[in-house]
From TrEMBL:
The keyword rRNA-binding does not apply. Its EC number is 4.1.1.33. The lineage of its organism: Bacteria, Bacillati, Bacillota, Bacilli, Lactobacillales. It is an enzyme of class 4 (lyase). It comes from the Bacteria. Belongs to the diphosphomevalonate decarboxylase family. Residues 180-312 form the Mvd1 C-terminal domain. This is diphosphomevalonate decarboxylase. Pfam families: MDD_C, MVD-like_N. GO terms for molecular function: diphosphomevalonate decarboxylase activity. Residues 12-165 form the Diphosphomevalonate decarboxylase-like N-terminal domain. Keywords: ATP-binding, Lipid biosynthesis, Lipid metabolism, Lyase, Nucleotide-binding.
Length: 325
């Protein structure tokens, strides 16, 4: 079969971790120290088209209509697919990100999940979700979970074969929404890759994190099965702050939160004082995501509008898994 001029397009949505992945035991294969749980979001996604072409002498990539010059991580990823499929052609990759790049909204999750799906299919491989999840993992850990819609769990495993995500629940039964406040859409100064490495190597609390996260994972999983919004929200918020305290306790110490993140957190506390249930979570960037039920969206939004412009506030519902377009 000729692979030329057979462009394949895939869409993957980003996900927000409710129980975070923070730290690797194998940096090359991206095997995590702890399992994690996420919710895939409908609002943020990446669409990627891959076309293998005999005439190319290297991979080329365009992101949002701009040529990407340093594509080492992409080429390394493409090499994995070339090895798996025994092909030696290069590819043209055209990608559109409907996610603020590198601002802690995990564009790498939707990015590598979409790339894994499009590239593997364009290379003639017919991977099932588990295989796709393993492949996406080689690009970025959080991408492992973006293969699935709804709630997913990345089971940490111990090696390349047994570290992959599974679906926990899709469609999602719980009434759950995620309000993202986009405080900064600039690339972050300390990538999650770098940040987690510093935490693993220097935070005296890292072992405690691993232990606690194992418990948080069970609590969140039970909350999903029992449709217990309160237990899910509370534990996700605690788990997120436990992750951020690893950054503070590292050497050198670093911080993803900025003053606007704290402002959002204070708004959330004020809402809770008024009896409006909502919780916050943050990844490796300043943006805060609020976990809430539909009935409270309006009230939460009007509280946030006291400090932030409407276009900075994005409301997501649970999203779908990988889709070929
Ligand atoms: C805080 O998946 O971006 O979002 O595997 O090094 O590419 P690499 O890291 P990445 O880290 C995500 C960290 C997190 C938590 C999470 O999504 O679980």
């Amino acid at each position: 079969m000729s692979l030329d001029n057979n462009p394949i397009t895939a869409r993957a949505h980003t996900n927000i971790a409710l129980v975070k992945y923070w730290g690797k035991k194998d940096e090359k294969l991206i095997i995590p120290n702890n399992s994690s749980i996420s919710l895939t979001l409908d609002e943020f996604y990446t669409e990627t088209t891959v076309n293998f072409d005999d005439n190319l002498h290297q991979d080329i990539m365009y992101l949002d209509n701009k040529k990407v010059n340093s594509i080492k991580s992409i080429t390394n990823f493409m090499d994995i697919v070339r090895n798996l499929s025994n092909i030696n052609k290069f590819a043209k990759i055209i990608s559109y990100n409907h996610v603020p790049t590198s601002a802690g909204l995990a564009s790498s999750a939707s990015g590598f999940a979409a790339l894994a799906a499009a590239t593997s299919k364009a290379a003639g491989l017919n991977l099932n979700d588990k295989e796709l999840s393993k492949l996406a993992r080689r690009g970025s850990g959080s991408a492992t979970r973006s293969i699935y819609g709804g709630f997913a769990e990345w089971k940490k495993g111990t090696n390349d074969k047994n570290s992959y995500a599974v679906s926990i629940q899709n469609p999602v039964k719980m009434d759950i929404n995620m309000i993202a406040i986009i405080l900064d859409n600039q690339p972050k100064k300390i990538s999650s890759r770098k940040g987690m490495k510093i935490s693993v190597n220097t935070s005296p609390y890292y072992n405690a994190w691993e232990k606690q996260t194992t418990k948080d994972l069970e609590t969140v999983k039970d909350a999903i099965y029992n449709n217990d919004f309160t237990a899910l929200g509370k534990t996700a918020e605690l788990n997120s702050m436990r992750m951020h305290s690893l950054t503070l306790s590292s050497d050198p110490s670093y911080l993803y939160l900025n003053k606007d993140s704290l402002l959002v957190i204070n708004h959330i506390k004020a809402l809770r004082d008024k009896g409006i249930e909502c919780y916050y979570t943050m990844d490796a960037g300043p943006n805060v995501k609020i976990i809430c039920q539909s009935k409270n969206i309006k009230k939460i939004k009007s509280e946030l509008l006291q400090s932030f412009d409407e276009e900075k506030i994005k409301i997501s519902k649970p999203g779908e898994g990988i889709k070929y377009l």
